[in-house]
What does this fold into?
Amino acid sequence: MPVYFYHPTALLWLWLVPVVAGLFLYASLKRKQAIKAFGAEAQAISRKREAVGGCLAIAFVITALARPAWNLEEQHLQETGRDVIFLLDVSRSMLAEDMHPNRLENAKTAILDCVEGLSGDRVGLVLFAGSAEIRCPLTVDYDYFRMALRQASPDSVAVGGTMVAHAVERTLEKLVAPEKAGMQDLILITDGEDLIEGDDEIDAVKKLNDAGVRLIAIGLGDRTRGSRIALEDEETGTRTFMKHDNREVWTKLQSETLRNMVSASTDGIYFDVGNGVFDLARIYQQVMENAERTSTDQKVVERYEEKFHLFLSMAAVALLVSNRWREKR
It folds into this structure.
C-alpha cells in the first residue's frame, strides 16, 4: 500500500530520535556510576521502557506532522462565486485627512477587510482619477489583489482630476463579461469631487444596467466643512496643503453626483459614509445575502485520505505505557 506525505520535509526532524536515545543512554550510564558510589544496597529504576516509549512517541509525532496519507479517493468539487470589481478613486482629493489617516488609506483598509470575507469570488481593481487604470484583472488570487491595492496612490494614474463616467465605461469594456450578467458587482468608492468635463455619469450607469452589473456606491469625506488636501515632500518630509490660485483647496463629499448615479441604476445602492467609520465587509455581506451566484465547472480531484491522527494516537499510547510500567530492581 503506497503511503503519501503531504508535508514530507517534516520527516527531516527524525534525527531527533537517535539524539534522544543517546541522551537516555548517557543518563543511564551516569545513574550506574552514581549507584556504585552508594554501594550494593542501592536500588535503581529501569528506564528502558521509558526510553523506548519516549523515542517512539517522538517518531510518531514527527510522522504525524508529515501528514501521512493513503487510500486514494476522488472528490467532486464545485465552487460558486460572483465577480466583485472595486472602482477606487485615487485623485488628490482622496488625500484629505477628514478620515484617519486620510480618505484613500481608509478606503484601502476597508477593501482589504471586505476581501477577507470573500470565498470563491473573483475580485478586480480599477484605479481612477482623470483616467482609469486596470490594476488587477478579475482573479481569485487574493494575494495579488492585495499587493496591487497596497500600491494604489494618486501617482497610479497618469491624469489628475476625477472622471467617474470614463472609469465606469473602461471597467465595462475590460472586465465585464456578458455571460455573467446579474452576477457582477461594481463597488465605487469616491468622494465624488473634482469632476472634470467628460462622459455623462448617468449614461455610464445605464450601460451598467444593460450589462446586468449591480452598482454599490460608497461616498467618503466630510459633508459640510470639508478638509484641506495634505501634500508631503518625499525628500524633506515637509507637509504643505494643495493650493489653487494661491488659495488652499478645501474638499468635501459631493454626494449628489453619487445619488444621481444610484437613482439611475436598476438595483443600485448608495452608502453615505461621510467621515465616519464604515465596515465595507459587513455592508457587502448584507447586500449579497440573497444574491445569485454562478457555478464553475465541476472538478474531480484525487486526494489521499490523511491518517495523521493514527500516529498521534500511537504516540499517546507509547507515552502512557512507558510511564506506567517502570521496573524496579
User: Anything to note?
Assistant: The chain has a mean pLDDT of 85.
